[in-house]
Amino acid sequence: MFWPMTAIALGFCGIAVLGLLTARVLVQVRRLAHEVAESSRRITRATEELERAAIPLAARTAHTPRQD
Prior knowledge:
By secondary structure, the chain is mainly alpha-helical. The protein contains one helix and no strands. The protein is rod-shaped.
């Protein structure tokens, strides 16, 4: 009777460890998703700023005669 009870206890402990590790992975995945979303917002903001800065430069070069 000792070995079956030990096997059940070890099986339960193994499942508990897997549950704990799953919870830790879930927390890290949420953190990573938050960081990816924040990075995406920053890239979008930088792209918009770059486009705004490029408009006057493009207008200036469009009116400048080319010297070939």
